[in-house]
Amino acid sequence: MTSTTTRPPLNGVDTPTLFATLDAVKASPELAKFQFRAANRWISGTHNRSTIRGFFGAGQEDSTRTDDFTYDADHPAVLVGTGTAPTPVEFLLHAIAACLTAGIVNVAAARGVALREVSSTVEGDIDLLGILGLSKDVRNGYQGIKVSFQIDGDAPDEVLRGIVEQSRARSAVYDVLTNGVPVSIDVATG
Amino acid sequence: MTSTTTRPPLNGVDTPTLFATLDAVKASPELAKFQFRAANRWISGTHNRSTIRGFFGAGQEDSTRTDDFTYDADHPAVLVGTGTAPTPVEFLLHAIAACLTAGIVNVAAARGVALREVSSTVEGDIDLLGILGLSKDVRNGYQGIKVSFQIDGDAPDEVLRGIVEQSRARSAVYDVLTNGVPVSIDVATG
């Protein structure tokens, strides 16, 4: 078995750089402190737009992302929006699928497993009696989220399942969605 | 003061339809059951892509969204990705800003308050010692999220602040992020 420190790039993951990054953070743990950011502006009705670009990490402001990423959100017509973009809650489903998938691919590369396919569907069930203020017994958010992965790779079933489990155990989005996080809201007017 | 049932459209919100929707759901609470969905596919390394289109709600499969919304996610180079899209955790920041903003605009319309500006910045602090597996004492996800709103509208400061507070109290994304939600993960291989 190849030592992890000499594994070649795999699955599009630069595995040597991944291990070198781990070593660098082990030596200087302050490099692990990151801050991500978004800015949002109301357009009309439930339609609004976020821009994402800058972040702090590895001890400095990032300079590699030179263009804004721009994402709209809106409600569909049935929820009195214009349907020009997904709802805010649908972006949570993108986030969990994307985080678990990136983790699966990284873990597989670290374990020397070549992947052929990682695809998933995510379903989020929500009862709008909560946000509509029509029931005190119904929460505002999703009541549950179900992620279904289809994975094909050069390893037995139990190894592939173990890779998914390790991704779950180290997923930032899974942690936030399942355990919650403190959210503070400041308001300036005028 | 205008009765809520006769309020005209405001802030781009079709207020009469909003109140009619509330009345319809009061009469038939099963209309409030929604399911949102996303599908994701791995591209290479930490780069993957979600598509969002169909959802169930108001008693039927939606037929108004006729095109896929497509969103990529990736890690930046410093986290051994290619930086072609934001990280999964950044989409959580878009989601919370978008949800609170849509709520603010709806609540303002329902209360007869004309808005001129709703903008926000969101910061999420995360220590990657968690997801890198380098500390058992550090969580995987954000340690905190801070949302800062700038709001201008035709109402006193305390009324505008009350609108933000009502949006927070009824926000689906705020509920999910602060209280967490059960997430199940199924895996099929081969």
Describe what you observe in this structure.
- The structure is a homodimer of 190-residue chains.
- Chain A is of the alpha+beta class and 190 residues long.
- In chain A, 30% of the residues lie in helices and 31% in strands.
- The first copy, chain A, is built from four helices and eight strands, in the order H-E-E-E-E-E-H-E-E-H-H-E.
- In chain A, the strands form two sheets. The first copy, chain A, has a five-stranded antiparallel β-sheet with strand order 4-3-1-2-5, with no helix packed on it. A two-stranded antiparallel ribbon of chain A has the order 6-7.
- The first copy, chain A, is globular.
- The termini of chain A are far apart.
- In chain A, 44% of the residues are buried.
- Chains A and B meet through helix 1, strand 1, strand 2, strand 5 and helix 2 of A and helix 1, strand 1, strand 2, strand 5 and helix 2 of B.
Cα radius of gyration of chain A in angstroms? 20 Å
Low-confidence residue ranges of chain A: none
Element order, helices and strands of chain A? Answer: HEEEEEHEEHHE
Q: Which percent range fits the helix content of chain A?
A: 25-40%
* Separate helix tally of chain A: 4
Could you provide a short overview of the structure?
The structure is a homodimer of 190-residue chains. Chain A is α+β, with helices and mostly antiparallel strands and 190 residues long.
